[in-house]
Fold this sequence. Notes:
Blueprint: H1 2-22, H2 32-59, H3 93-111
Amino acid sequence: MQILDNRIAFMSLYILQLFSLSEARPLRKRTVSEVQLMHSLGEHKQVQDRRDWLQTRLHTVHTAPARDGSGDVGPPRRRIRPEELPDLSDLTPDEIQYALNLLEKLLKSKQS
């Protein structure tokens, strides 16, 4: 019985010694296709990381110029302040009606 225990202890120590010699190296050499696959996978991951980084950077950048409906790039528009509006108190009712009709036509053409 003691001989059997010694053999088990000896085999256990021998197996432990084999594992310590391998030092987490592969037990066999990789084939060329495995190496190429691992290289391609690493390269793909690096490209994906670059693409993600660039995408996050581009989200913060906005350089598109303002465009109107015709697609032409024009000067930037600014809002008219109330003090810049012309005095319309001297307009007649016919002139006011004409201006309203003109604005309605412009709005309809802009919607269609």
